[in-house]
Amino acid sequence: DAFGKRLVELAMKERSDLRAAKFTEEQSNVQLAKAKNDLLPNLVVDATVGAQGGDVDGASVGHATRSFTDNVAYPQWTVLVLFEYPFGNDAAKGVLTQRNMAYMRDSMLLAESNRTVLLSVRNSLDSLKHAIPGVELSRQSIRNYWPSVEGSLEKYTNQRDQASLSTLVDLLTLEEKLKLALTRNVDTKTTLAKALLDVRFNTGTLVPKSETDSFTVSKEAMTTLP
Q1: Could you give the dihedral angle defined by the CA atoms of residues 13, 16, 19 and 25, in that order, rounded to the nearest 10 degrees?
Q2: What pTM does this model have?
Q3: Which DSSP string corresponds to 156-192?
């Protein structure tokens, strides 16, 4: 559904472990590209121009500047062309193999992280959907048994001296059922609270982002959906 899709998108954005996996994969890709470039030919062209001669006498700035254009003798031109080709560069080939394997490993880890996050979000959302009806059913059981227990207790109290054993047994039975309903209510609320925390955790929204090492998990984060 649309809500589940939004939670998945939120998890892809907020999960710090997923961001770390993406960063590692990107770094491996950069290192792989460099390793490939190391096997390519390298061409370096270096050109320099110089001159000898010229009148450098004089103290003024203009005189010194004209010395570059006036009375210039023996111009020098130097061009250096360097071409390198890595024939039989086994070291570079070995590095390329290592980088390629590292990139494949990190890509697989990223894909596995994406799959794990997707499944964890879906499972936590399914658990939440199943936990909500359980809380309502336990509340309904309490509402059903509570008046019956009060009625039986009042009847037994009014007829304490004349009450039969069956009346006492009925009262104890209803009280036991009410206790079970109350216990079930606590259990279902605990399950619901855990499901809410799981949704928050799996979407990366339980712990707020902080520039420091300290953080505080708010009550809202533990009791609401992102």
Answers
A1: -150
A2: 0.66
A3: HHHTTTT--HHHHHHHHHHHHHHHHHHHHHHHHHHHH
> Which tens digit of pLDDT belongs to each residue from 60-104?
555 555 555 555 555 677 777 777 776 667 788 888 899 999 999
Structure tokens at 221: 């984060």
Q: Where are the alpha helices (DSSP H) in 41-82?
A: 61-66
What's the full length of the chain, in residues?
A: 226
Amino acid at 40: L
Q: What is the pLDDT of residue 51?
A: 58
* Largest CA-CA distance found in the chain, in angstroms, rounded: 138
The alpha-carbon radius of gyration of the chain (Å, integer) is 40
Angle at 223 between CA 219 and CA 226, to 5 degrees: 100
State phi, psi for 218 to the nearest 5 degrees.
-80, 160
Residues paired with residue 84 on neighbouring β-strands, in sequence order: 42
Rounded CA-CA distance 219/135 in Å is 20
Q: Tens digits of per-residue pLDDT, 120-137?
A: 999 999 999 999 999 999
Q: In this structure, how many other beta carbons lie within 10 angstroms of the beta carbon of residue 155?
A: 14
